[in-house]
Design goal:
Helices cover 46% and strands 13% of the residues. The chain is an alpha/beta fold and 217 residues long. 34% of the residues are buried.
């Protein structure tokens, strides 16, 4: 079995509803309820926090002050996303994920985490959800400000467990990130729910880890 590089949000942890709730609170607070959240969310729900908030600032006619945009981008996570997880005790991984991670650990298969999440969210995942059971906090790749995009992040995630991304299987849900994994050199990608026939590196599409074919990894 090849080394495995996992994405987190939408892959190991199904949090679409949490993100939508957190964004709704944030946008309503920023705009004073003057923006139709449902309409704007359709267009921007898959973008980075900063990009989404920058659009909101433009729509409201606010000055595009980087520090204020960054404040709201972080507040969306630390105030609302974190609150939802803690108040609703949302800490379970996607179906079959914990069992698969246990299998990899028991069979000494190298694996790592590659997530675009910021440090504050990574802290939540380790402290509250308990990712330290499987992942080494010092080796994972996340948005610590040193990566240009997820292409370089994937390469780093592989290197930090002593391998090359070309030798790995990536498990990811976002088509954009799947494309970035392929661009990084990964030739074996398992997709969670997303498919694009143009991405030849996709070897299986699954709804969750209970459907994963271990034989192709």
């Amino acid at each position: 079995m090849r080394p495995i590089i996992f994405d987190f949000n939408g892959t190991l942890f199904f949090d679409a509803d949490i993100n939508e709730w957190a964004w709704r609170q944030t946008i309503n607070e920023v705009s004073g309820g003057t923006i139709d959240f449902d309409e704007v969310y359709k267009e921007f729900k898959s973008t980075r926090n900063y990009t989404f908030l920058k659009h909101i600032f433009k729509t409201l006619g606010y000055p595009l002050e980087e520090d204020k945009i960054n404040y709201w981008a972080k507040r969306k996570e630390t105030e609302y996303y974190h609150r939802f997880c803690r108040e609703n005790n949302r800490k379970d991984l996607a179906p079959g994920a914990a069992e698969f991670l246990d299998y990899l650990k028991e069979n000494n298969v190298p694996f790592n985490l590659c997530t675009a999440s910021i440090k504050e969210n990574v802290d939540l995942y380790f402290d509250f959800i308990g990712l330290g059971r499987w992942f080494d906090r010092e080796k994972i790749a996340y948005d610590d400000g040193t990566f240009e995009n997820k292409v370089s992040m994937y390469k780093a995630a592989a290197e930090r467990i002593g391998t090359d991304i070309k030798e790995c299987t990536v498990i990811e849900d976002s088509l954009k990130s799947i494309s970035e994994a392929a661009k990084a050199g990964c030739e074996h990608i398992v997709s969670i729910k997303s498919y694009d026939p143009e991405i030849k590196e996709i070897i299986q599409v699954i709804n969750d880890f209970t459907e994963l074919d271990h034989g192709i990894l």
